[in-house]
From TrEMBL:
Keyword terms of this UniProt record: Glycoprotein, Glycosyltransferase, Membrane, Transferase, Transmembrane, Transmembrane helix
Cell location: Membrane
Pfam families from the UniProt entry: Branch
An annotated GO cellular component: membrane
GO molecular function: glycosyltransferase activity; hydrolase activity
Membrane topology: Single-pass type II membrane protein
The name this protein goes by in its record: Metallo-hydrolase/oxidoreductase superfamily protein isoform 1
Record has Ligase as a keyword: no
Transmembrane parts of this sequence: 20-44
InterPro entries per record: BC10-like, Glyco_trans_14
Amino acid sequence: MTGFVREFYSRIRRKFHITITSLFLLSMASFVVLLGTFTFKLLVSEGSSPCFPRLNRFPTSMSYPYSYILSNFGLPSSLPHPPFNSSLELKTLIRAPDHNSTLHSVTDDQEVKRRAIVVCPNVIVSSGNTTPKVAFMFLSRGSLPLAPLWEKFFMGHEGLYSIYIHTSPKFVDEPPVTSVFYKRKIPSKPVQWGNATMVDAERRLLANALLDCANERFVLLSETCIPVFNFTTVYNYLINAKQSFIGSFDDPRPTGRGRYNKQMLPKVSLADWRKGSQWFEVNRKLALNIISDEMYYPLFRNYCNPPCYVDEHYVSTLVNKISPELNTNRSITWVDWTNGGPHPTQYERKDVSMALLEGIRQVSNCTYNGHTCSICFLFARKFHPNTLESLLTMVPVLFGFNESNTM
């Protein structure tokens, strides 16, 4: 009888052990499958490239990783972009550690510039205590017709970006309070195409963006620009870049060297003269250099007049003179000049396709941080307002998430 009980107990123990082992192995297999699915989704939704490391600088506060996770899974964030508060004076900006939620009413460019220079005197790169941000600066006549596309681009990434809009002073309309563009307009002045007021507006945008000490990268865009990669790819590319992205080259043609004026001598020589795209991206050091320059800009304002266009020569030439090592000599905003003329090709609804966008995303190889990279352009222009509907249908491919989850 004792032997029977022992045998019976032994069999039960073996079966129990086999059952526990099987459940453990099944659980591990399920975990591996879930982990693989998550990893695959993360790679698809956020993008990766051998050109630059994936996002390696996460926000420090608890709310930011939450919004970052929401964006990874295509879920809407309930955290609205903080609006400016026009009741605060400029002196408040100097004391505030985060200026993204404040705006001033000062229209004196020299005063705003002075404040921008002194507000963060020692900030060039993040100290590690502040989450670095990218300042998106829109130079527009009025509204942003492609704003719904940009809304999806920014969604879920609060705390990693700032927005600044320069419009005509006569434009007073505001988007809905839930929009990331709500109350993002800076005090502006009239801008006329082809003259120095265009660069005045660029410097005005930079000065306002520099008031936020967390802003480390500054990209200039127009109302016809679109992003061609998702936010994380763009943020990763810019925050980890060792140089800035300013088109700057020596153009021997009449539209290049032919625009040089000898009255700029001796401070600016023909050998210094450069041409490039107006749509630049700069780090904090170059942004400060651009707004604080009082030696070269007066020469461009006085002696670069049509057919010389200040916005095509000033920043390119300035950086070539003062800090050429900080520039890649290329723009990250794709523009089609193949048709010639004073303006680039404008794309309309019938022109927009994934083939066009993929061609921009993989247009050629370029250099990034000393290595050959297949991602050269992060933005593109000029896209007509009637392209919005078509572009929105391409959001899942462009930004890597399910459109149904973003509504």
